[in-house]
Amino acid sequence: MERSQHQALVIIDVQNDFCPGGALAVPGGDEIISKINLMQQNYAQIVLTQDWHPASHSSFASAHDGKSPYDMVQMPYGDQVLWPDHCIQGTSGAAFHADLVTDRADLILRKGSNPLIDSYSAFFENDHQTTTGLEGYLRDKGVVSLLFVGLATDFCVRYSAVDAAKLGFDVSVDLSACNAIDLNGSLKNALDDMRAHNIHIIGQ
């Protein structure tokens, strides 16, 4: 039996580049897919997000002379981790993992396409001002409650969930259907941040 139309499942960035063998692989990134597919059967509203970067995106280490992946730099909008080139528009790395069920999704939201600003969150780019349009879409659908799953717990899941909570949605994150990069303690920081925003943490 499907859940209320007022609830939505938001599946974050289950793409080849974030799975084993990908350019920015999350450990065990593919191991959550079967659970996510089962969860989709219980939701009337499903949103998929997809990292969708142009080549030479400013968040790529390759776009900065003398910098390496995972270095930190200052951007006009604040601190930015520099990443390996990943999820480049139209490449196999940017495609959803073949095992992920995608045909139940009501919306596929592509983010990170502005070459000057990274976009972890499904709601805002990293300047925390430029919106993706997702809030308006969900409000129009009457959605008030969101469950987040996907990749990676400590970056795109975290920022999406925290922004959703700030916007007034009732937010949950199911850790059994997420996996983390855990870069220099980023997973603990993410969990602390989500709890501080009254996000329900499930599956821990």
TrEMBL record:
Uppermost EC category: hydrolase
Entry annotated with the keyword Transit peptide: no
Record-linked InterPro entries: Isochorismatase-like_dom (IPR000868), Isochorismatase-like_sf (IPR036380), Isochorismatase_Nicotinamidase (IPR052347)
EC number: 3.5.1.19
Keyword annotations from UniProtKB, A to Z: Hydrolase, Metal-binding, Pyridine nucleotide biosynthesis
Pathway(s): Cofactor biosynthesis; nicotinate biosynthesis; nicotinate from nicotinamide: step 1/1
GO molecular function terms noted in the UniProt entry: metal ion binding; nicotinamidase activity
Start and end residues of each Isochorismatase-like domain: 8-201
Gene3D superfamilies given in the database record: Isochorismatase-like
UniProt name for this protein: Nicotinamidase
Organism name: Cohaesibacter marisflavi
